[in-house]
Amino acid sequence: MPVYKQGVEDSIKSSLLTTIGDIIAASAVSTPARIAAPASGQVLTGQGAGVLPAWAAAATVAVTRAGGNTTEATTTSTTIVDVIVTSSLSIGANIPVLVVCPLRKSAGTAATASARFKVNTTEISGTYAWIGSQAGAGAGFVKFDFQTPQTNYDRSGWGKYVGQGVDPANLPLFGAAVFPIATYTSITVMGLVGNADNTMGADEMQVYTYAVS
Amino acid sequence: MLYIFAGFPKCGLNAGGLQYAIEERLGIALLEHDKGVQYRKEGVFLKTERGEEQLKDVDYRLSDLCLRDGITWDWFPENWAFGNGVTVHKTLASPEFRTVVHGTDLTLEEYLAMFGGIKLADAALVRRFNRTEGWEVYEKRWQPGTCPQENHIVHLTWMVTKHKLPEFAYERIRQLIEVPGETVDESLYEPKHFSAPRLWNGSPAVRQGAPASGGVG
């Protein structure tokens, strides 16, 4: 049976704990204070010296918020994989869209690295090597211009890519397949490496929608 | 088998570095590198020049931290491609907000177009969360109540192995990826094996142009 200083036990039992889940902390020496029960999933978080702790959302491992640490997306996959995705989009019909994504390949066995483009769940381009076959590290860039389609206007975009070992004078184009007619909720840059000894990287992907008149 | 972990590797290694650590330095797993083998949400596929064939269902394991963060197998939509080898994946998402005249669902431009002039001092503007179709589709992927309601990035690290890992090997790899403060002996690796973390300023995933004439926000 715990023993409390006279008065504290009565305070705790009679007035401080008003809701299931309430906890008690010291607001001053020998002075208990109630911290109200948390919302589901919250954890007790220190607020610094001299301040009562408070409930806050648990820090996640997978999620980065503003001011948090992030880094590039990378892969050693030799079959096509979802490397970097922009989700939570709501792009309706007939909206011009620009997607840009710088890429890199690490040094390794001489091989290419390739990219493909996906909207929602539909892969709408072939797989194109955006960098020449080389052992050294190199960088490149892919860009997709398209207008979200409507009926009968569904081949409404193309992609371009450039990288070391690819002649920039030609700025190779690749034709996109039929664009699905739907609200576009995600856009994905997919990738693969020609040899698993290489790493393909993509750090930033920007999606821009244009004004329509 | 497919193993999915929460976050980018806390030890600083990128996909190539993690692969090197697992196969060469620690020697605790054999990763799948066959150019014909692709793991997807729907199954394991053998890809050839003439087409593809499903070999089997995906045998996967999500780490406990993925589940705690609200990420289950349902987080991955249809036709999600896991590939093979090692991947450090990045998903960006942003909710949308509209600035509307208080008490209405109209932006200032829409309000003026509908009601004519208004004394600006009399107009209170509020920022309202715009629950778009795209946001609802994205939010449904998360466990209820876990989808971050702000601009955010989701990092996931996954790898495809040839065989199921013994528990000690799984735990060692999980520590490299998910445990803060976990380090590797950098003298045993090359610079190309590392990705430098940087602060993210919370910029949105999509920049929207001005809307069709007659509306703002």
Greatest contact between two chains: A-B, 63 and 78 residues
Q: What assembly state would you assign to the polypeptide chains in this entry?
A: heterodimer
**First-last Cα distance of chain A:** 76 Å
Instruction: Give the ordered list of helices and strands of chain B.
Output: EHEEEEHEEEHEHEHEE
SS field, number of helical segments of chain A: 1
Distance between the termini of chain B: 47 Å
Largest sheet of chain B: 4 strands, mixed
Counting helices, strands and paired strands, the structural category of chain B is: alpha+beta
Major sheet strand order of chain B? 5-1-10-7
Strand content of chain A: 35-45%
Helix content of chain A: under 10%
Number of strands of chain B: 12
Mean pLDDT of chain A: 84
Principal-axes shape call of chain B? elongated
Radius of gyration of chain A: 27 Å
Radius of gyration of chain B: 23 Å
Sketch the topology of chain A as an H/E string, one letter per element: HEEEEEEEEEEEEEEEEEE
As a percent range, the share of helical residues of chain B equals 10-25%
- The amount of beta strand of chain B, in percent, is 25-35%
The helix/strand class of chain A is mainly beta
Low-confidence stretches of chain B: 211-217
Explain this structure to me?
- The complex is a heterodimer of chains A (about 210) and B (about 220).
- With about 210 residues, chain A is mainly β.
- Chain A is built from 1 helix and 18 strands.
- In chain A, strands 7, 9, 13, 14, 15, 17 and 18 form a 7-stranded antiparallel beta sheet that branches.
- The N and C termini of chain A lie far apart (about 75 Å).
- The mean pLDDT of chain A is about 85.
- Chain B is built from 5 helices and 12 strands.
- The model of chain B is unreliable at about 210-215 (pLDDT under 50).
- Chain B has helices at about 15-25, 65-70, 110-115, 135-140, 165-180; strands at about 1-5, 35-40, 45-50, 50-55, 60, 80-85, 85-95, 95-100, 125-130, 150-160, 200, 205-210.
- Chain B has about 220 residues and is an alpha+beta fold.
- In chain B, the strands form 3 sheets. In chain B, strands 5-1-10-7 form a 4-stranded mixed beta sheet. A 4-stranded antiparallel beta sheet of chain B has the order 4-3-2-6, with no helix packed on it. In chain B, strands 8-9 form a two-stranded antiparallel sheet.
- At the A-B interface, strand 5, strand 6, strand 7, strand 8 and strand 11 of A face helix 1, helix 2, strand 6, strand 7 and helix 4 of B.
- Strand 8 of chain A pairs parallel with strand 7 (about 85-95) of chain B, so a sheet runs across the interface.
